[in-house]
Structures are given as structure tokens and as C-alpha cells.
């Protein structure tokens, strides 16, 4: 799909849209949040006072959500909101003009292309010793090999991947403590890698960059 090059950034560097609900506004009031996706609909209208406003529907790999643009936000961000545009939206829930109603207030909108490959910084694996078999070792070694081949001149065909650090937390059986090992070489983070780890039931997390 058109969003495939942004898979890692959208699924791990942003909050998936399926998890974004106005019902959670009270619990998340004031908390900075980031969402990304492609504009699938942009409706323009006018308020009773004659002021323009817009509603944009943004879609990611998990769902669709509608964001409203009023006042200064409309004039600032409407040029970014044409259908088909890929966006990164930042903001937080807050109350405006002493109103008791919580509204998601957008703090910035920018092209998703600007942050492609920058939102994810690494991969952390949590393993029991018996999980570190030849199959997993081969998968990790291949990702490290590809990471060594990655250059700043990577072409569009490989932009669905991100280079990052690899950390392995290995459970020591006797002490039941975690030993932390960090690779000196970078690893390629990709949908193929995370899907494979999920199929193998390997516990992992993707480390992110606050931008």
C-alpha cells in the first residue's frame, strides 16, 4: 500500500489510530501524542460566524480517525491536508477558553516523509537461553548484515526499513536476572523482522526516538 514505506514509523513510532479515542481524553489530558497516516478525506465548511474550518480523516494500518481544524489551525495546516498526503500529527487533549469540554488540540502537522526512518531507534529482545537457537541467531545475523550494508544513499525501495541498535536481554537461569548485551553493529528494523519475531513468539520491543 501507499503507507508501506512508513510501516515501522507508524506502528512503533506513533500511537496507532485504533488506540486513539475521545473516551480516553480525561486520562490523557495534557499528554503529548503523535499520530501518522494518509489523508483519505478532507471536508471544508464554514461556521455560523462565517469562519472556515475543516475535518480531515487520516488512515494508518490499524484504522481511521477524524481531526478537526478550526481558526488559526485551519489556515496553518489546511495546505497539508489534500487527499493522499501522508502526515505526522502531534497534539494533546486540553480545555480551551475555560471550557469544561476536552478537545484534541493540534500542535503541529508535517509531512510524514520528513520523519521517515527517524522515529524508531532500535530493537530490544528478551530471551530465555533456550530461545537463542540457530534459527533466531540466523535471523539476527541477517538483520545485522543488512544494517552494515545500509547507507545514507538508500533508495526508495528499501525505505520501509530503519537502521537501529540491537539490545538482547538474556535471562540467567540460576539468578533469574537479566543480562544485557548490546551489539556494536546496527541492525535493520523492518516489518519482516518484527513479523518473524512475533511468529516465533519472541518477546521484543521497538525503541523510539522522541522528536
Could you walk me through the main structural features you see in this protein, from its secondary elements to its overall organization?
With 211 residues, the chain is α+β, with helices and mostly antiparallel strands. It has helices at residues 7-12, 25-28, 71-77, 134-149, 191-199, and strands spanning 33-46, 52-59, 64-69, 86-95, 102-111, 120-127, 162-172, 177-182, 187-189, 203-208. Strands 3-2-1-4-5 form a 5-stranded antiparallel beta sheet. Strands 6, 7, 8, 9 and 10 form a 5-stranded mixed beta sheet that branches. It is elongated and about 70 Å long. The chain starts with 6 loop residues before the first helix and ends with a strand. Residues 151-159 have low confidence and may be disordered.
Q: What value does the average pLDDT take?
A: 86
Q: How much β-strand is present in the residues?
A: 35-45%
- What is the makeup of the main sheet? 5 strands, antiparallel
Span between termini: 26 Å
Topology as a string of helices (H) and strands (E): HHEEEHEEEHEEEHE
The best one-word shape is elongated
Contiguous runs where pLDDT drops below 50 for at least 5 residues: 151-159
What proportion of the residues is helical, as a percent range?
10-25%
Supply the number of helical segments. Answer: 5
What Rg, in angstroms, do the CA atoms define? 21 Å
Amino acid at each position: 500500500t501507499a503507507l508501506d514505506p512508513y510501516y515501522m514509523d507508524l506502528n512503533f513510532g506513533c500511537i496507532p489510530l485504533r488506540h486513539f479515542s475521545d473516551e480516553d481524553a480525561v486520562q490523557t489530558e495534557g499528554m503529548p501524542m503523535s499520530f501518522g497516516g494518509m489523508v483519505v478525506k478532507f471536508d471544508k465548511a464554514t461556521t455560523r460566524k462565517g469562519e472556515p474550518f475543516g475535518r480531515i480523516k487520516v488512515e494508518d494500518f490499524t484504522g481511521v480517525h477524524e481531526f478537526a481544524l478550526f481558526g488559526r489551525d485551519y489556515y496553518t495546516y489546511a495546505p497539508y491536508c489534500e487527499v493522499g498526503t501522508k502526515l505526522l500529527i502531534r497534539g494533546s487533549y486540553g480545555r480551551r477558553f475555560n471550557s469544561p469540554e476536552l478537545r484534541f488540540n493540534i500542535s503541529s502537522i508535517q509531512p510524514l516523509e520528513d520523519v521517515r526512518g527517524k522515529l524508531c531507534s532500535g530493537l530490544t529482545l528478551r530471551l530465555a537461553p533456550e530461545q537463542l537457537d540457530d534459527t533466531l541467531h540466523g535471523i539476527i545475523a541477517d538483520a545485522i548484515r543488512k544494517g552494515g550494508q545500509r547507507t545514507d544513499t538508500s533508495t526508495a525501495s528499501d525505505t520501509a526499513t530503519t537502521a537501529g541498535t540491537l539490545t538482547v536481554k538474556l535471562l540467567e537461569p540460576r539468578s533469574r536476572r537479566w543480562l544485557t548485551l548490546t551489539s556494536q553493529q546496527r541492525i535493520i528494523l523492518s516489518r519482516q523482522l518484527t513479523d518473524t519475531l512475533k511468529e516465533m513468539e519472541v518477546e521484543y520491543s521497538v525503541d523510539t526516538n522522541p522528536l
